[in-house]
């Protein structure tokens, strides 16, 4: 059924259909409408979920960690400094291998305090051992949330997932979203079967025991292996979902890339804006293309290398800094291309911090620089007052 | 032998009881007490002072001390320090093990 949904409501709609056992959350702009909508579902008996209203995000993540360890399907959502406050327990969730699924509505980290979208929050968690999936629009938010449940809960994976969407741009903008029937989603996600759980295991189970130098390293090595398994199993779940929705979920999506001479790499809502510019420049006969990154953790190095190997100049759009180093997306793209004999030339573009607009003309300027071979080792800034 | 990363439950979970028996805490030791039964008068000082209960004794009316249980001995040296006959020597752990 086609519904008019914001990105936030699309996340809530997916959560309604998943019908998790436990949800714990604390309000934070721009995540709030997800939980506001979900609380409406709880209040009207449309889900069986135990909704725990906690006093902070640290407690929200702690509550879903406890619920998940007990054997419940547990979900939450957050943004920005809320994610930062969770950070300690975000790592506990992945370290304990709990398949928690969390929608993250991207918003700048303080200070200065700012409520608008950039990726400094989720990028700060890129090494936290969570699967990270970035969403272009509300449709993808909805579908990625369903996909994440399957990936996270696979017994060979058992890693938590974050599904990202841009604050306000996606979370508060209404778009048509094709929603599957409740029964179809119920079949797709299936009943939650924890591999181990405090409530249902026959043997006594200890969760969160101390591990020192004799076992900690082995436990971390397992987490890395689980990320490898995500890459191996990703497409079987993606295709299962494709059969239901008719949409495709490649780890990276190529847009007019096969014969492109120059390309831009982007994720989240900047992808849509870039597509508009690609369409216009293509109509003018310019060989421009776009690579969209959907899966950011684990990072699809081979897929990126394959997609960009014939492109001469690549511009990478980052909506966050890694201060004093290559920006997060740029660094991964550069890594992915290292093994090529003939490497594309790269340009790092920073844009959109704290919700600064990204206009079509900014992307067009970037494309024109790439088309004229004008790239440098320095970061460049789109729509910044110099 | 400790298990490889492929053999242990994920997430540091402990999925069965009694696993503490596998946890030989004596791996912390950097000095090892070497006991000389010839010099020992079985006064039990070391047995009572050992903070880890790592010195076993016979179950007799007049118990005798047995050799140190190195699975749990931390090498603190208290036993060597209290022994009235200097029957315990602390030797640095090394390749000779
Ligand atoms: S060295 Fe310390 S721990 Fe080891 S037997 Fe002696 S007193 Fe006990
Ligand atoms: S303190 Fe010395 S003499 Fe006494 S029981 Fe221990 S080793 Fe033997």
Main attributes of the structure:
heterodimer; A: 386 residues; alpha/beta; Rossmann fold; 2 domains; seven-stranded mixed β-sheet; six-stranded mixed β-sheet; 12 helices; 18% strand; globular; B: 97 residues; little secondary structure; two-stranded antiparallel sheet; 2 helices; 2 strands; elongated; binds iron/sulfur cluster
Structural class of chain B: little secondary structure
In CATH, the topology of the domain at 39-97 in chain B is named: Alpha-Beta Plaits
CATH class designation of the largest domain in chain A: Alpha Beta
Please identify, by name, the CATH architecture of the domain at 39-97 in chain B: 2-Layer Sandwich
Name the poorly predicted regions of chain A.
none
The largest pleated sheet of chain A is described as: 7 strands, mixed
List unreliable stretches of 5+ residues of chain B: none
**Which percent range fits the helix content of chain B?**
10-25%
Order of helices and strands of chain A: EHEHEHEHEHEHEEHHEEHEEHEHEHE
Q: What would you call the shape of chain B?
A: elongated
Give the quaternary arrangement of the chains: heterodimer
Shape of chain A: globular
| Mean residue pLDDT of chain A | 98
Can you characterise this structure?
The complex is a heterodimer of chains A (386) and B (97). In chain A, α1 runs parallel beside α2, α1 packs parallel to α6 and α10 packs across α11. Chain A is 40% helix and 18% strand. The mean pLDDT of chain A is 98. Chain A contains twelve helices and 15 strands. In chain A, the strands form three sheets. A seven-stranded mixed beta sheet of chain A has the order 3-2-4-5-7-6-12, with helices on both faces. Chain B is largely without helices or strands. Helix content of chain B is 10%, strand content 10%. In chain B, strands 1-2 form a two-stranded antiparallel sheet. The chains are: A alpha/beta (386), B little secondary structure (97). At the A-B interface, α8 of A face loops of B. One iron/sulfur cluster (SF4) binds next to α1 of chain B.
């Amino acid at each position: 059924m086609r519904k008019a949904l914001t990105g936030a409501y699309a996340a809530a709609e997916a959560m309604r259909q998943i019908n998790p056992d436990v949800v714990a959350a604390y309000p934070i702009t721009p995540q709030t409408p997800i939980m506001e909508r979900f609380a409406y579902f709880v209040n009207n008996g449309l889900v069986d979920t135990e909704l725990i209203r906690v006093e902070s995000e640290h407690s929200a993540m702690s509550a879903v960690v406890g619920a998940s360890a007990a054997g419940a399907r547990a979900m939450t959502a957050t943004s920005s400094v809320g994610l930062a406050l969770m950070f300690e327990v975000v790592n506990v969730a992945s370290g304990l291998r709990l398949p928690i699924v969390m929608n993250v509505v991207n918003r700048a980290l303080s200070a200065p305090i700012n409520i608008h979208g950039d990726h400094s929050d989720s990028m700060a968690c890129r090494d936290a051992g969570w699967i990270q999936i970035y969403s272009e629009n509300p449709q993808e938010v909805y579908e990625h949330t369903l996909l994440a449940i399957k990936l996270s809960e696979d017994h060979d994976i058992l890693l938590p997932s974050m599904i990202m969407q841009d604050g306000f741009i996606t979370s508060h903008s209404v778009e048509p979203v094709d929603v599957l029937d409740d029964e179809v989603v119920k079949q797709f996600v299936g009943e939650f079967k924890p591999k181990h759980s405090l409530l249902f295991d026959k043997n006594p189970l200890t969760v969160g025991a101390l591990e020192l130098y004799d076992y900690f390293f082995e436990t971390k090595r397992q987490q890395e292996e689980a990320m490898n398994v995500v890459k191996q199993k990703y497409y079987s779940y993606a295709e299962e979902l494709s059969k239901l929705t008719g949409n495709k979920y490649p780890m990276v999506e190529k847009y007019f890339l096969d014969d492109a001479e120059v390309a831009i790499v982007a994720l989240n809502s900047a992808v849509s804006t870039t597509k508009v510019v690609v369409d216009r420049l293509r109509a003018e006969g310019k060989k421009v293309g776009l690579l969209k990154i959907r899966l950011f953790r684990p990072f699809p190095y081979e897929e990126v290398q394959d997609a960009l190997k014939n492109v001469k100049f690549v511009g990478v759009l980052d909506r966050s800094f890694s201060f004093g180093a290559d920006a997060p997306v740029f660094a991964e793209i550069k890594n992915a291309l290292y093994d090529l004999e003939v490497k594309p030339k790269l340009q790092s573009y920073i844009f959109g911090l704290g919700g600064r607009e990204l206009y079509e003309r900014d992307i067009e300027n970037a494309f024109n620089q790439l088309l004229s071979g004008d790239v440098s080792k320095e970061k460049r800034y789109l729509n910044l007052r110099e | 032998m400790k298990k490889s990363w492929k053999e242990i439950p994920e997430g540091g979970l402990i999925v069965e009881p009694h696993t503490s028996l596998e946890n030989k805490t004596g791996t912390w030791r950097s000095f090892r007490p070497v006991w000389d039964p010839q010099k020992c008068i079985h006064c039990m000082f070391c047995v009572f002072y050992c903070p880890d209960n790592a010195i076993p004794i016979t179950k007799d009316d007049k118990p005798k001390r047995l050799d140190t249980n190195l699975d749990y001995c931390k090498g603190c040296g208290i036993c060597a320090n209290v022994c009235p006959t200097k029957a315990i020597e602390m030797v640095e752990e090394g390749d000779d093990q």
